[in-house]
From TrEMBL:
It comes from Pseudotamlana haliotis. This is Arylsulfatase. SUPFAM superfamilies: Alkaline phosphatase-like. It holds the Pfam family Sulfatase. The keyword Calcium applies. Belongs to the sulfatase family. Residues 72-485 form the Sulfatase N-terminal domain. One of its GO terms (molecular function) is metal ion binding. CDD domains: PAS_like. Keywords: Calcium, Hydrolase, Metal-binding.
Length: 784
């Protein structure tokens, strides 16, 4: 499979190789010759001689940017939603043998920190600035019109990819990109904040917080592409992106084995939906029957035994929001355990795929001079599955409950294409052992402390060593640049750059006792906030990740205080003992918040989803689409929710071409589709797997024809019902009443004309079910 994907690029490689041979006299600009204050560098001056004819002239090739002599390859691997105590490498119960092996060859870091949520962590990782400085105070879907929260990474915070590329390093990005504003992620762009415009020569991945692993919304550079197999044929995005990454890396080294590469490898794993085959899930059958309370104890004891945490570290108190395992009934225990077995299977599978990448890296001609930075999670384990967990994550995120009995009817399908699973909050707290709290809660280490493993065979000789310096995600960029012999320029593309906030921790590669580089660091997400300073942490936990409908306000806030030099796991709140220290740190937080553009704080939770945002659609209520308009994100499609609307398609058909999708939005978890089956126009509304079908009583006539769908909304709030009516050539053929409609979002799939890409809205056809006739246009009108 890998070689099939290599072939389309091979011709380019051969041509470029030939060009390289022709231009072999070309010289390079070494690092010491560059103008380090700006990128791109000025065009080099001609150093030859120009006469009247070539016989009187001397040629000289321009000096092109190139990395410093002996600069390493750099591979950054970033997982999603992983707790500190999940992997076997850091004392957890989920076997990650390939991560174990990597750690045995390099260094493990047990005091490394993220921002506590994905997009902010990724912005900080790529830019070396704090997340608010990079405009990513929270997620793109929750963006507001304040500079630190609009999620539009400014040109003044250029990425490490841009610096590496500008210094002659080939760069690539695989997997999850959640740093393009939500409204800019369609195939219509703009592409200014896509990976390919931010320093990466090649991008293969998805533009969202998550994707369906069986039906991913994939882009290659800026072009939407479809998977080359179905789930039934064995397709999984984790395998696909790994194949692509290996192929890209091998091609680079085939062409220029001496030239370093920079790769950012960011799987959607371990974010929900937790998709994996039954074979992987079944490997963990019965492994977690003891429940989440016992799991915390088992992991805590193992972490001490392995030396992952200090011998005197305490286990933080269990969270009062989590029910005790022994108080659950048998049905709850069965369902909750199934969900975590499935998650463990997904994690083991992910480790296997990353193992393939690591094997390919070890076979590089310059493997000894390759840095692998493996960051095990962009935040702590996620509690976004809620108190009960779910097998339809999008339904849950829309605030629609489902019973455990209802979910158990599909227990054999958990992890497969017909489900979108996420475990309940109890497993998240267990996964973050020994720390308190979870993803989104930036105030505590359960949200912000993630394992990291670093290898560099040429430099790191302390194989299997542990490092305990206090580090933050912003420290990765300056470390990469120091290791590569580069400096961050003062200007990039003519824009003056904000100073790098991070500091290099390269000193720890060769010295276990290297001095601390980071003595102060603030944390803030959704008003959960903390400040670390010289061994002390002041923390305020503000919002609950599984209750996005609550805005608690800022009155009577309670802050906690920890001395983490003596209390590794934030288990003992000593605020009452040291009130002056607490006030000192609260004042320091305010200073850091002002400096790093944190304000204004915003705890509105899910209400921020409704904040008006820029849109490629503007404020229009009338839209015309043509064939080829596919893979548009829901935010770039007409918003037909909570209102009356109509859709009219002008078609041309003949007797042999009357099948396929006219328009579709969403997927198996929820959505709608207007399609033709056996010649009959049919509308299907999927309300989170409760399906309503409206089938025309008449077939399509041959030739030019109008098919119109009209929806009259009941009104009176969000998610109410209404009446669908179907017309052929303005003649009413049938109608259907629904009592409920989707109020929030249909899911993680897309909108399209003429086909149902990705996860199909229904299994009544085989996706993409392209329309066989000709769609002249589809007109959509929003009525109120």
């Amino acid at each position: 499979m890998i070689y099939k994907k290599v072939l389309p690029i091979l011709a380019t490689v051969l041509i470029l190789g030939a060009c390289k041979q022709i231009g072999q006299e070309q010289t390079k600009i070494t690092n010491h010759e560059k103008e380090g204050s700006k990128l791109p560098y000025d065009d080099p001056a001609f150093t030859g001689k120009i006469g009247k004819t070539y016989a009187e002239s001397e040629s000289a090739w321009p000096k092109m940017p190139s990395p410093p002599e002996d600069a390493p390859n750099v591979i950054v691997i970033l997982l999603d939603d992983v707790g500190f105590g999940m992997t076997s490498t850091f004392g957890g119960s989920i076997p990650t043998p390939n991560l174990d092996s990597l750690a045995s060859e390099g260094l493990s870091y047990n005091r490394f920190h993220t921002t506590a949520v994905c997009s902010p962590t990724r912005a900080a990782l790529l830019t070396g600035r704090n997340h608010h400085q990079a405009a990513n105070g929270f997620l793109p879907e929750w963006a507001t019109g304040f500079p630190s929260y609009n999620t539009m990474i400014p040109r003044s915070t250029a990425t490490v990819g841009r610096v590496m590329k500008g210094n002659g390093v080939n760069t690539a990005f695989f997997g999850k990109n959640h740093n393009t504003p939500d409204w800019e992620t369609s195939a219509a762009g703009p592409f200014d904040r896509w990976p390919t415009a931010m320093g990466f020569d090649y991008f293969y991945g998805f533009q969202a917080g998550e994707t369906n692993q069986y039906y991913p919304v994939i882009f290659e550079n800026t072009v939407p592409v479809e998977a080359d197999k179905t789930p039934e044929e064995g397709y999984h995005f984790m395998t696909d992106m790994t194949d692509r990454a290996i192929s890209w890396m091998q091609l680079q080294k085939s062409m220029s084995p001496e030239k370093p590469v920079f790769m950012y490898f960011a799987p959607g794993a371990m974010h929900a939906p937790h998709h994996v085959t039954k074979e992987w899930r079944d490997k963990f059958k019965g492994k977690f029957d003891h429940g989440w309370d016992k799991e915390r104890e088992i992991t805590y004891a193992r972490q001490k035994e392995m030396g992952i945490i200090p011998a005197d570290a305490k286990l933080s108190a269990r969270n009062e929001n989590v029910p005790e395992w022994e108080t659950l009934n048998d049905e709850q225990k069965e369902f909750y355990t199934l969900l975590y077995e499935n998650f463990a299977g997904f994690f083991a599978f992910t480790d296997y795929e990353i193992g393939r990448l690591l094997t390919a890296i070890s076979a590089l001609p310059d493997a000894e001079n390759t840095i692998v930075m493996y960051i095990v999670g962009d935040n702590g384990a996620s509690s976004e599955g809620g108190l009960d967990g779910t097998i339809n994550e999008i339904k849950a995120l829309n605030g629609i409950p489902s019973t455990i009995a209802e979910n158990l009817k599909k227990k054999d399908e958990i992890g497969g294409p017909t489900t979108e699973p996420h475990f309940p909050i109890g497993w998240a707290f267990a996964g973050n052992t020994p720390f308190p709290w979870v993803k989104q809660v930036a105030s505590h280490f359960g949200g912000s402390r993630n394992p990291m493993v670093v290898t560099w065979p040429k430099v790191i000789k302390d194989k299997g060593g542990m490092r305990s310096q206090f580090l933050h995600i912003i420290d990765v960029v300056p470390t990469i640049l120091e290791a590569s012999g580069m400096e961050f320029p003062e200007y990039v593309d003519g824009v003056k750059q904000k100073p790098i906030a991070g500091k290099s921790f390269m000193s720890t590669f060769t010295d276990a006792n290297a001095p601390e580089i980071r003595t102060t660091q603030y944390f803030e997400v959704l008003s959960n906030r903390a400040i670390y300073h010289e061994g002390w942490v002041a923390a305020h936990q503000h919002t609950l990740p599984w209750r996005q409908d609550v805005a608690p306000g800022y009155e009577n806030e309670v802050w906690e205080l920890y001395n983490i030099e003596e209390d590794f796991s934030e288990a003992v709140n000593i605020a009452d003992q040291y009130p002056e220290k607490l006030e000192e740190l609260k004042k320091l937080f305010d200073e850091e918040a002002e400096k790093n553009e944190v304000y204004p704080l915003d705890d509105r939770g899910a209400a921020r989803l409704t904040v008006p945002k820029p849109s490629p659609l503007g404020d229009r209520t009338s839209f015309t689409f043509y064939e080829g308009a596919t893979r548009l994100p829901e935010t770039a499609a007409p918003n037909t929710k909570n209102k009356s609307w109509s859709m009219e398609a002008m078609l041309e058909t003949d007797a042999q071409h009357k099948e396929g999708v006219i328009s579709a939005l969403g997927g198996l978890s929820g959505g709608y589709v207007l399609y033709v089956k056996d010649g009959y126009p049919t509308f299907l509304y999927n309300y989170f797997e409760e399906v309503s079908t409206l089938k025309s009583t008449k077939k399509l006539p041959d030739g030019l024809v109008s098919v119109k769908l009209d929806f009259k909304y009941d009104g009176g709030g969000a998610g109410k019902g209404g009446l669908f009516t179907l017309y052929i050539n303005n003649e009413k053929t049938c109608e259907l009443r629904v009592e409920e409609t989707v109020a929030g979002r249909y899911g993680i799939d897309t909108f399209g004309i003429g086909e149902d890409s990705g996860s199909p809205v229904t299994k009544n056809y085989v996706a993409p079910a392209k329309f066989q006739g000709h769609i002249i246009e589809v007109n959509i009108e929003l009525k109120n």
